[in-house]
Design a protein that fits this description.
This protein is α+β, with helices and mostly antiparallel strands. Helices cover 34% and strands 25% of the residues. A five-stranded antiparallel β-sheet has the order 4-5-10-6-7. A four-stranded antiparallel β-sheet has the order 11-12-13-14, sandwiched between helices. It has a three-stranded parallel β-sheet with strand order 1-3-2, covered by helices on one side.
């Protein structure tokens, strides 16, 4: 499988990348780790005229303690999240989830920003950021704006990012001392999740679902039940409320609904909800 012909340019700064996006519009695509975009190009499902390589922008690779929250550069690789001392202290769930993404090769190349900006509901990290109540920081020609994680994904492979914008940072609250669980059901360790669940308990319990709709979803029925004092079994029975799981070679929609309830129950038992 060979992609269509394209031009290639290496951005030497975020500003340079933004200028190229502004110049070429929908004909340009950003390239970070490339694990999502390149397969689409090989299948001719994406055919950008220009690839803008931002993978070398060290300015967008960091994990910082900003006082009330943690700031994570969009080009921080999964392996760096997995081994970050700052995350281990203040938000260990994100380190744990990053360590379950793909295989070592993927984790050493893939970036958190690429995973989130791609908009695939089967990705693990977008659901983790959603469960945490995180925020995306976008930069474009009109300056910087922030978008809550719950408003960032609009549909399958569709996000709040405009054609001339760049995701530069992800902000998550500090969760030191919180309890968390990541339940991921797949056929092989490196596969996408057939269904996944991220639960974080820090006073209240946030629950997000992987691959249960066209976007990462909060398990709103579960959270509502817990807030009302329901037990784990009763809350988990509402795991599939408001979801539209796909049917594919890995399982039917009904199978995924059953999995969601089982995995949510396991996650809630682990966090002590």
């Amino acid at each position: 499988m060979i992609p269509a012909a394209f031009d290639y340019e290496v951005a030497d700064s975020a500003a340079h990348a933004l200028s190229l996006l502004a110049e070429h519009g929908e004909d340009a695509k950003l390239l970070a780790g490339g694990h999502s975009l390149l397969p689409l190009m090989k299948l001719r499902l994406a055919a950008p005229a220009l690839l803008v390589d931002i993978g070398r922008l060290a300015e967008l690779s960091y994990v910082r303690d900003e006082g009330e929250h943690l700031a994570i550069g969009a080009l921080t690789r999964h392996r760096d999240l997995e081994t970050s001392a700052v995350l281990a202290e203040h938000c260990p769930v994100l380190s744990h989830v990053a360590g379950q993404v793909g295989d070592p090769q993927v984790r050493h190349r893939g970036t958190i920003g690429g995973s989130i900006a791609h908009g695939d509901p089967a990705s693990d990290l977008p659901a983790a950021v959603l469960a945490l109540g995180g925020t995306m920081v976008l930069v474009g020609p009109d300056g910087e704006r922030t978008v809550p994680a719950g408003e960032f994904h609009h549909g399958f492979l569709e996000t709040a990012l405009a054609l001339d914008e760049l995701l530069v940072e992800i902000r998550v609250p500090k969760m030191a001392g919180s309890r968390y669980s990541f339940q991921k059901f797949n056929r092989r360790a490196q596969d996408w999740a057939i269904v996944g669940v991220v639960a974080v308990r820090n006073g209240t319990t946030g629950v997000a679902l992987v691959n249960m709709g066209s976007v990462p979803l909060r398990a709103a029925g579960v959270e509502e039940a817990l807030a009302g004092g329901a037990d784990v079994a009763t809350a988990a029975a509402r795991a599939d409320e408001g979801t539209e799981p796909p049917t594919d070679l890995n399982g039917s929609a009904e199978y995924r609904r059953h999995l969601a309830k089982v995995l949510v129950r396991r996650a809630l038992e682990e966090v002590g909800a």
